[in-house]
Amino acid sequence: MKNQSLHIFLIAVAILLTNIHVNAQRNEAFDLTARGIIVGQDVPHIEISNLHNYFDKDRKQRSTVNISSFRGKLVILDFWATWCSPCIGMMPVMDSLQRRFEGKVQFLSITAQPDTIVVPFLKKLFRGKKMDIPFATSDVLVSKVFPHRLLPHYVWIDETGKVLAITSHEEVNAKEIESVINKQPTVMRQKKDMAVKYDRNKPLFLAENGGSGKGLIYHSMLTEWGEGLSMGSWINPAMGKATVANLGIKEMYAAAFSEKLIIGQHRVINQMKDPGTIHYDGPRAEADSWMKKNMFCYELVLPEGKRETLRSHMIGDLKKLFPKIWADTAHVETMCTVLVSTGDNSAMRSKGDKRAIEVNSLGISVTNMGIVALTSRLDIVYLQENPYPIVDNSGIKFPVDFKLDCDLGSVTSINKALSQYNLKLVNQRFTTNMLIFKDAQAKVVTHNQ
User: Fold this and answer.
1) pTM exceeding the 0.70 threshold for the entire prediction
2) What is the CATH number of domain 2-194?
3) Which residue intervals of the chain bear CATH 3.40.30.10?
4) How far, CA to CA in Å, does 114 sit from each of 120, 135, 138, 379?
5) Are 189 and 171 in contact (CB under 8 A)?
6) pLDDT tens readout for residues 379-429
7) What digits encode the pLDDT tens for the residues 177-191?
8) Structure-model confidence comparison of residues 233 and 261, the more confident one
9) What is the per-residue pLDDT for 52?
């Protein structure tokens, strides 16, 4: 019976991969998650291999386990990667939930990355503390059964072996788990990973690149929300091409003004009467509706001789396409998170080795580079949730060598690591470049705050 189930399972995987290929060839946007085992269907006998940190009921360590072994428990499969910040943030949360619901819930973390990367990463993440969640590395099979595009990705399997839900990380919490265990009503937002064939080096929507382009509004080119496209922007003056996929007006202007500075959320001043025109801050349940009404795809291609003015052309387009909105950059005195010196910084002076940088969410190591290598990355990537821009006022003009073992998403953790170099991040007023939005009909005033 087990061999028969495995045979049926392998046939299903083959059909799944064929369907995905056919849809990709047709350039039709499709829900990738729906091409695998979906909510309400039974999970076949899937054996998970390359398993770490798993002990059977006799407390013997095992490197394989069949999902059917957990019948009678709620099973939550966690698909993740070491480069995924939300995935990493959920690891301690899941570990705590595993202990809290011991005997009733079984988390299983699954990644395609090899154990040579994953094992040392998790040891460093948990800082020597015991981790209760089993994890599988080098996965190929299970991710094909539950196909997805975005991480983290969670598959909930009830005690009978049926798929109960497919969600993102927001739904993985004690309240939802208790509701499932106690068989109480729960409305979890089902995750859909829309996918479509797209080559960013070719014109968007032309020849069905990225979809049919049925929402075409304006050419040079503006369309409504493009289903299945990943959100982002690509500005290439050398090619004379600017492309935006599924971004709002605020993000489009930020891309256009990004020649010298990447403009994140904390470098925006919104002085519009209706701030919701460019920024959504409402109920999560209504976010999808707002996005599809207020986020767009845009592409501009300029001929040779005009390519150096790509960004100014894009700004001109945006002014014409959204005439009720005025936007510009200005150096503004405002609250910033400022890197300052607290003493002698000479110990950081570079020994002159080859320029290098290694960085992830667990720390940063810099060799023979300017201190801006730290502040720029904190500003652009790791401290995007910080309320203020990250700027340098340390006075350090020489190349530096340093290594920080810390959580780059936490100012407190960064400051603890910086103390060895007599540096500190402090909140104070500072003049820095900001992107300012106003209503177009409003009189433009001085930008000082």
Assistant:
1) no
2) 3.40.30.10
3) 2-194
4) 11, 11, 5, 31
5) yes
6) 988 898 899 999 999 999 999 999 999 999 899 999 999 999 999 999 999
7) 999 999 998 889 999
8) 233
9) 95
Which tokens go with 379? 């500003």
